[in-house]
Amino acid sequence: MDASRISVDESCTDLFTEEAKLEKNSIADRINANPENAEQGLAKLVLTVIELLRRLMEKQAIRRIENGSLTEDEIEEMGLTFIKLEEKMEELKKVFDLENEDLNLDLGPLGDLM
């Protein structure tokens, strides 16, 4: 009985080893971590976060304008700030060869980020 138990354990170990190798290869295929695109991937992540924050700030600014809690000067200053931020974002997207669609993350069942 012990001998058959050992052979089952060995076959399970072999099966596990094969599965682990397949999973390792699968993970390596999904994670494309080469130096050439690491910089662009990081830029994409950073610009996505900045774009998300910019949109949130714009929505908050609109709420404040609609509530009348900003002066005309503050509205003007905020508008100029958003214009400059948009120009800088466009400049950075060109540098890293990114489009607006590249900054939208698919969150699976939750849908797109933006």
List the helices and strands and how they pair.
Elements: H1 2-30, H2 35-67, H3 72-95
Describe the fold and architecture.
The protein is mainly α and 114 residues long. It has 2 domains: 1-31; 38-114. The protein has helices at residues 2-30, 35-67, 72-95. It starts with a helix and ends in a 19-residue tail after the last helix.
Write out key terms for the chains shown:
single chain; 114 residues; mainly alpha; 2 domains; 0% strand
Tally of DSSP β-strands = 0
Give, in order, the helices and strands.
HHH
Gross geometry: elongated
Number of self-contained structural domains = 2
Give a quick precis of the structure.
By secondary structure, the protein is mainly alpha-helical.
